[in-house]
Amino acid sequence: MHDLSNEPEPPPIPPELHSDYTDQPFKHCSRCGESLHDFEGGFQVSKAYKQGECVFEYALCDHCRAGLMEEFSEKSKKNLMDFQNTSVSFDRGLDGCSVCGVKRSGSPMKEFVVTGICEGDRLVHGIMVCGKCGEKTQELISTHTRDTWRRFISENFPGPPADAAPLPDPVGVPVF
Prior knowledge:
This protein is of the alpha+beta class. The chain is built from 4 helices and 4 strands; from the N terminus they run ββααββαα. The chain has a 4-stranded antiparallel sheet with strand order 2-1-3-4.
């Protein structure tokens, strides 16, 4: 049995992963509405940025995240998992792209996605994917998976303004 008492406590969820709309930590799952801090198993927060502005954000409890992933095509899930296992580094945090390593700080990065896996008020781990690497992942997903993602958006985030930037494709949903 693994002794967890010697492992350091994960850091608090950073303000960067709080809601841009409320300036507070996410409190409820964006899909089912359940309280995230009472949910056993944790949750995922993802935020997509374009031109330095957050254009899309959500929090999903583990149950809803797993359910959404189950709706993806088998080929997409395999491709994304293979990509994660061969190309994604989990040691660069929220400032360095988990694929290519480019840093956000000191570079004019215009598009990127940050994602954190959280438990309670703690960040278990976080990653950032730059826009260029996010675009590469589009080749890995099927039309079925894109349609599933777009349905998730339309069901949970209806009615973006007509002049809003287009919402990101499934690259904002890491496999983890």
